[in-house]
Structure formats: structure tokens, C-alpha cells
Design a protein that fits this description.
13% strand, binds iron/sulfur cluster, ubiquinone, quinone binding, 4Fe4S_Fe-S-bd, 4Fe-4S
Length: 182
């Protein structure tokens, strides 16, 4: 068999240019074949669901939106070391580090903190490498938090600390803590 006629999938069909018969030119058989395929699918199990009325159970390994964690005293854990940004294959993370002032001990756990921390959700592929790289257990991809919502403005997909930092009451109240992705 020559290279031109070989088919990797074995499903290659030679196309013929022969003239159509009268019956073929009416396309009746072709239309009926198409209708039959449609009807056959009516009785099959549907792969779609009526979201948002119905929701699917998330996979045990589902990774949702990131959360910048606080410790049990409500202080931000992140020390702006940049390891998460370095390990991110999508280059989705940016941050600005600042030194903690003496009167900010109750806000930030470490001497250095991220005054700006942003994740571009359009770039993120939810791989979880940022979570694995973090030496301070400061960033997690949550299971229970909502998915990143759709939007029509690209700017709205850049999530800053206002969207990422764990709510204060969640840090203090153990019953509210989010489920982390495994
Ligand atoms: S989940 Fe992956 S792609 Fe998304 S910010 Fe973290 S390291 Fe980057
Ligand atoms: S989230 Fe973790 S890895 Fe990223 S800058 Fe903060 S402390 Fe460093």
C-alpha cells in the first residue's frame, strides 16, 4: 500500500466522483439516515443536565477557585516569597511585597506580606502547582468555593486580594472553613 492510500485510523474512504443517480440526487435516503440518527439519540441517556436547576457532583479531585489563607488568629499567611508565581506554568500570578509595620502584627503573620496579589483566571489552568510550592500553606485551591464565574470583561478575571483572601469569619470559625482540593 502506498503512503498516499494508507490510513492510520483504518476508516479512510476513497471519495468517488461518479455521477449521482436520480434517487441519490433527491437526497431522500441521506435525509432519512440523518433523521434516524437524531431519533436514535432521543432515547439515549442524556449527557447534558439542566444547569443551574440541576448540578453535578464534583469530582473528588476537583480544584476550584484559589484562596489565600489566614491563620487561626486571622492573620494572612502569605509572605510574598514569590514561589507560587515561579512555579506557575501559566505565569498567572503577580504580587508586590511589602514589609510589615509594627502595628500590623495582627494583620500579617510574617515580616513580609503581599500588598498586591493577583491571579489572572484567564491564564490559570487550575493545576495546583502554586499550592504545592507554597512553604507557608498560604494558598489553596478550594473544593467548596464557587467556580470562577463567567464575565464579558477581561479585567474582571484578574482576581485581587479582595476576591482571594479568606473571609475573616471563616478563619476564626472552624465550621466555616472551606474544603481543600486534594
Ligand atoms: S493553579 Fe496552576 S496555573 Fe493556576 S495559578 Fe496556580 S500554578 Fe498557576
Ligand atoms: S502564596 Fe505562598 S508561595 Fe505564594 S508568595 Fe505567598 S507564601 Fe509565597
Amino acid at each position: 500500500m502506498s503512503i498516499e492510500t494508507m490510513s492510520l485510523s483504518g476508516r479512510k474512504k476513497e471519495v468517488s466522483n461518479k455521477k449521482m443517480t436520480f434517487l441519490e440526487s433527491l437526497y431522500l435516503v441521506t435525509i432519512l439516515k440523518g433523521l434516524f440518527i437524531t431519533i436514535r439519540h432521543l432515547f439515549r441517556r442524556k449527557v447534558t443536565i439542566k444547569y443551574p436547576e440541576q448540578t453535578r457532583e464534583m469530582s473528588p479531585v476537583y480544584r476550584g477557585q484559589h484562596m489565600l489563607m489566614r491563620d487561626e488568629e486571622g492573620r494572612e499567611r502569605c509572605t510574598a516569597c514569590g514561589l507560587c508565581a515561579l512555579s506557575c506554568p501559566a505565569e498567572a500570578i503577580t504580587m508586590k511585597a511589602e514589609e510589615r509595620k509594627p502595628d500590623e502584627m495582627h494583620l500579617y503573620r510574617e515580616e513580609k506580606y503581599a500588598s498586591i496579589y493577583e491571579i489572572n483566571m484567564l491564564r490559570c489552568i487550575f493545576c495546583g502547582l502554586c499550592e504545592e510550592a507554597c512553604p507557608k500553606q498560604a494558598i489553596y485551591l478550594t473544593k467548596s468555593r464557587t467556580m470562577v464565574r463567567s464575565n464579558s470583561d477581561r479585567e474582571d478575571f484578574i482576581f485581587g486580594k479582595d476576591k482571594l483572601v479568606m473571609p475573616l469569619d471563616m478563619a476564626i470559625d472552624n465550621t466555616k472553613k472551606p474544603q481543600m482540593a486534594k
